[in-house]
Amino acid sequence: MLTRVAAPCILFFAIVFLIFSASPYAKGRRVNIALSNPEPKAVRAAPGDKFSWETITPSEELIWADCYADNQCARLKVPLDYSNPDAASAAIAMIRIHSIVPHNSTNYRGPVLINPGGPGGSGVDMITRRGSQISTIVGPEFDIIGFDPRGIGRSTPRASFFESRSEREIWSSRGNPHTMSMNASADALPRAWARAIIEGQLAGERDDGSLRFINTDHTARDMLRIVQAHGLEKIQYWGFSYGSILGATFASMFPDNIGRFIIDGVADSENYYANEWDNDLIDADKVWSSFIDGCVAAGQEGCPFFSPTATEISEKMDKIYATLRERPIPVRTNTSFGLVDYSMVRRVIFQALYAPYARFPDLAQAFADLSAGNATALFKMSEQPPFECAYDNSGDRLESVLEATFAVTCNDGSRILPGYEDTVTHYQKMSETSTWADVWEPIRIACVAWPEFPQKHFRGPFVANTSFPILLIGNTADPVTPLWSAHKMSQGFNGSVVLTQDSAGHCSISGPSICTQKYVRQYFLEGTLPAPGTVCPVIGTPFPTDDVQISTDAQTVLSLSAADRNLFEAVRDLATTFDIRFPIGL
Ligand SMILES: *[C@@H]1O[C@H](CO)[C@@H](O)[C@H](O)[C@H]1NC(C)=O
Ligand SMILES: *[C@@H]1O[C@H](CO)[C@@H](O)[C@H](O)[C@H]1NC(C)=O
Ligand SMILES: *[C@@H]1O[C@H](CO)[C@@H](O)[C@H](O)[C@H]1NC(C)=O
Ligand SMILES: *[C@@H]1O[C@H](CO)[C@@H](O)[C@H](O)[C@H]1NC(C)=O
Ligand SMILES: *[C@@H]1O[C@H](CO)[C@@H](O)[C@H](O)[C@H]1NC(C)=O
Ligand SMILES: *[C@@H]1O[C@H](CO)[C@@H](O)[C@H](O)[C@H]1NC(C)=O
Questions:
Q1: Ligand 4 center to residue 304 CA distance, Å?
Q2: Going by C-beta distance under 8 Å and a sequence separation of 6 or more, which residues neighbour residue 197?
Q3: Where does the sequence pass through the membrane (predicted)?
Q4: Is 78 left (phi over 0), alpha (psi -120 to 50) or beta?
């Protein structure tokens, strides 16, 4: 067993990775206050992959087998290369939460496909962990379907270019740029670039011929196959974050196959396919400000890192940064050990920006401790389970891996110039857009030496008269998918509507809003869209504020109908346990 020193596995790249886990530091404290029953609902622990996917033979028809407690799983056989469909095939791993009504009931509403983002995110993981809340929101008349997009997780062939788990682990535990701030040292950026040269070479040399087919175009085609395998023509879909790029791609390629379609946490697909990554962060500083302002407003009682003014809190942060740059702090816990350094603090904050309701209180406590010289809490916020060498083969073959994200982003994106100067120029430009460029830049760098596959896939334009109008959802302050992109993408889709949620955090489910999720449910069930310009509030704030507010929130919750209370519990659970691991790091 190797211990992951300095928790190198919180990887920071993809647009998001809505991998959810039962987080020890997400206790749902704020919104729980507003509930008559304040006990946080037990969050089901991530089920190790006890189910043996090899027992399912991939088939072109959907054959469901029981798996993971009370779900069903299937592996759908699809062409590896859609331009040569009789050649090799791929197998898409799927999981289903069955509707509560039988499929021959008139109340049955068919499958809803879910994508958790990434790219590189596993839909199977998302559904095993958070499927019941998603099902509560969408409605029990629907089947909820998670799938691992091609190349990822349990879908085969897998995008993987290390020869063993140990080889990958050893490589990634030493100066992995996805755990580094590019502002940590003078050589952080050139090192990230140099490492990407090696990774690009490995990707090319170790490719068995399948790597070039791991892209969003083909995943969209796979989604259509999933729909058709159900005997249906029209898709019902809810995609988060990168799932908005997958969604915009699908809707542009197959506009006549749209039944119900929500993209939530909407990225600018044009910018993504251009491999630019330079307008994702335009609201990230707004989210960080909401931490500072929220802490000031919450007072000493509500925020352990309190100071009377935002300026004073910023000064305390600068001091933490400066101190850690000079001297990292050694930390030991009973399960691991490592250093809290500048990079780690940057990453932990950035990660918290995705999920203020789950993380801001812990972040404030960790900073208060850090200011007093105790780095344990901060370390724990990025602590990873120890790396186990002795997994059996099935575990080895099915876990999500880092390379799957590169495979998708680099295959999808335009080629970037391989020279280091181009990376420097890009980083400088990014730094002018956001103070979080240091943690975002490595995503694009991963493609500097990617193999030069022919690029024949769909990459726009993202316009369509869809067979049903699509619903886009954006938060007023989303760190990586700004509201601006939802409006931009909406322009291409005739009849589409943008629903705004007034909260900080990534995707609607990072904030507890009954309003938003009722619109989601109505849309799926009745096909009604919110009026253009609708803005939904959330209940509560990440930091406890004053008693008046708390009691107002409590009143709101107490006045809910039983059905809405149920919905509220689902949104509260999602928001307060929303735990992002940048690709794969579970
Ligand atoms: C629906 O299917 C179930 C079991 O497959 C069957 O027992 C029932 O009679 C069917 N109902 C209708 C209305 O067809
Ligand atoms: C890098 O860090 C220094 C010191 O913390 C800070 O002043 C500077 O703004 C940072 N630069 C970037 C590009 O993040
Ligand atoms: C670590 O220590 C805490 C507190 O002493 C204890 O509750 C926990 O079980 C320990 N964990 C392990 C893995 O030993
Ligand atoms: C540091 O903080 C942790 C909680 O995160 C606490 O358990 C520990 O006792 C503290 N260490 C010291 C030396 O105060
Ligand atoms: C949508 O329909 C309108 C009118 O029928 C047509 O002018 C327009 O070109 C269509 N747009 C797309 C993207 O097909
Ligand atoms: C949108 O769809 C309507 C109805 O099909 C059509 O009349 C209109 O021209 C379309 N608009 C655009 C901009 O494509």
A1: 15
A2: 418, 448, 449
A3: none
A4: beta
Cβ of 181 less than 6 Å from ligand 2: no
The phi, psi pair for 5, rounded to 5°, reads -70, 135
From the CA of 334, the nearest ligand is 3
Q: Report the 3 state secondary structure along 444-474.
A: HHCCCCCCCCCCCCCCCCCCECCCCCCEEEE
Q: How far is CA 500 from the centre of its chain?
A: 19
Q: Tell me, using a 6 A CB cutoff, whether residue 491 lines ligand 5.
A: no
Lookup: tokens for 158: 């897998």
Q: Is 491 in the pocket of ligand 6 (CB under 6 A)?
A: no
Q: How far is the CA of 333 from the centre of ligand 3 (A)?
A: 9
Please measure the distance between the N-terminal and C-terminal CA atoms of the chain and give it in whole angstroms. Answer: 17
Give the pLDDT of residue 578.
79
Best CA proximity match to 63, nearest among 237, 223, 229, 224 = 229
- The whole-angstrom distance between residue 349's C-alpha and the CA centroid of its chain comes to 16
Atom of ligand 3 nearest to the CA of 333: 1
Whether 494 lines ligand 6, by a CB cut-off of 6 Å, is yes
Phi/psi at 273 (nearest 5 deg)? -70, -25
The CA R_g of the chain, rounded to the nearest whole Å, is: 23
Query: Tell me, what's the pLDDT at 47?
Result: 45
Closest residue by Cα to residue 8 from 446, 245, 336? 336
Q: For 465-510, write each residue's pLDDT tens digit.
A: 999 999 999 999 999 999 999 999 999 999 999 999 999 999 999 9
Ligand of minimum distance to the alpha carbon of 386? 3
Q: How many Å lie between the centroid of ligand 3 and the Cα of residue 431?
A: 41
Angle 113-226-237 from CA coordinates, rounded to 5°: 20
Going by the DSSP 8-state scheme, the letter that residue 335 receives in this structure is: S
Written as six digits, the tokens of 165 are 């788990």
Do residues 300 and 313 make contact, with C-beta atoms less than 8 angstroms apart? Answer: no
Q: Which two tokens stand for residue 503?
A: 């909260």
Indicate whether residue 102 lines ligand 1 (CB < 6 A).
yes
In ligand 3, the atom with minimum distance to the C-alpha of 335 is: 13
Ligand 6 center to 26 CA (angstroms): 46
Q: Is 465 in the pocket of ligand 5 (CB under 6 A)?
A: yes
pLDDT digit string, tens, across residues 155-173? 999 998 898 888 988 898 8
Q: Are 510 and 264 in contact (CB under 8 A)?
A: no
Give residue 324 CA to ligand 1 midpoint distance, Å: 66
